[in-house]
Amino acid sequence: MGYGKAARALAFAVAAAAAGTSASAGTIHGAVRASSLRSLEGVVVYIDRIPGAVFSPPAARPIVDQKNLMFVPHVLPVLVGTTVDFHNGEEPSGGRAINHNIFSPSSTARFDLGTYGYGLSRSVTFDKPGVVTLLCNVHPEMCAYILVLETPYFTLTDREGSYRLEGVPPGRYVLKAWHPLLRPDSREVVVSGEAGVTFDLKR
Amino acid sequence: MFRAVIRKFLTSAMLLVVGLVALEREAGAIPTFARKYRTSCSTCHVAIPMRNAFGEAFRRNGYQIPAGDERYIKEEPVSLGAEAWKEMWPEAIWPGAIPESVPFSAYAHQRFVWDNPKDDREFDAPHELELLMGNTLGRNVAFFGEFVFFEKGQNVPGLKRLFLQFSNLFEGKLGRALSIRVGRFEPGIADGYKDADRLTMEHPITLDYRVTNAFRIRDAQSGLEIAGVPHRSFEYVFGVVNGQGVTVNDPNNSRDVYFRAGVKFRGMGLDGSGSPEGDELPMADNYVDDSVTLGFYGYRGLSTQTEGGVTFDNRFRRMGVDARLNYGRSYFRAGVVQGRDENPYNTSQRDVDSTAWFVEVDRVFKPWILGALRYEKLRIDGKSDLTQLVPNLTLLARANIRVSLEAFIQPSLDADPFRTFKANVLFAF
Residue A171's domain is classified under what CATH number? Predict the structure, then answer.
């Protein structure tokens, strides 16, 4: 799967760009624990809807690529209103092109981009918050998730399950943790400088 | 006389231990579950195939690690659809998986037998070769089977067990309270002391005795069983089976039914709660689980037999209690079963009662040296009244190579009570 530092950096950069900067912005840091997972990387930690707050989607378009019969990244958090490019980066193998078909059965955003080949991209704008499951009709073992969120304050955990959410304005929020295989969890957090929250996710 | 028996046993045991310890043997490859998790047999077994508390919880959980199977799997299964395809159901097939490697393991026994009444000593090698198959088919679906190629010195190939199990149905709401298995399996009434869990070569009398040839508790049966662990300390089993063991065609239209209820105090939960949750599975010192487990069970059946060209029915029942006390390196086990057969011989002898019971103590002296001593009695009205004593010494040359030395003594006999001495080497791969 591989989220990597790049994916986490992209997620945070998009969030920070949308949020702007504030001299009094705080940081939420902590860890996610889940005994049933081999790797704790890729848990989305985010601030849930802030009543009355509206955020503009970023101009930069995140990319969901398809390589080695996998979606990359496996989990992508985006701000509602973001347009995502779905790119077929599957290099031909043995002279044969490998086509993919991306579709989503989710009520949050139901779509079918059809089958297309190497080097091509198609786009979807996500206007509704929620979870979007991505599947490929050609390769049933492929799947990925887009988490469409209502605030730009989100990040992904690293391999140890640690996360750091910076640039959060002071205030009281609901902080959530989400992983595709586990039950989500939420905590109330008050941000005034540094705040620490640990999640323990279960199936 | 008893001293002579003990002398014979100890002399033979010492000679064999010296002989076997002198052999050098590399451990074979590892069986299916050990391959899947890249772990030793000792993770789940005190001495193969006798399971420890963790191994028992693993079995009850549908051959999955209770604390979270995915993180321990080292051999990735072949996906039959990503988990997200669940969202497409019923418009798509529910996703599953198959094991990456062929899920077969083998158990082989080499044996030396001293049959005292016949004054016969011989090598029974190979004594048995069986193929075991088992793994999961995605989350919460498992299968297990046993095929015997060679048994008691003869080619008698046959399928002993093969079942499919759906574990932890409606897990979100019911947890581990509901599992269903279908196929051919040992009825779960013996879960307190399963046949495969014994340290001795001889089967405990409560599982092994027969009033007629048509029924024995430890025989595999074809049917359906519902079981679960609704609470860490409580388990239940209900089953419906054809009856009459592994006969291909059930000779009557009646199904046998059975139930079991078990409760465990202290120790690791029956659902595996309380088991270690580190990054790797613990492979050592897994035999301590201070606890008390009690079980109660019943079986009711109808057997149809043909003798002397006459076919007749026998309605029968068995009711039993079993208990296990684990304390440090010692295990104390006991069981009693009471039976009633209404027409076992098609003679004027009706309502034949039987009672079998045993007490056993097992001890882990070292992780590779174990001992067992079992005392058991059987009484069948008008037919037999047996007392049996089974001392056993088990040595683990490797986690997958087990050497057993065992005597079978019947003090109730007027003649020489020493019946047999067996030395067995079991290896698994």
Answer: 2.60.40.1120
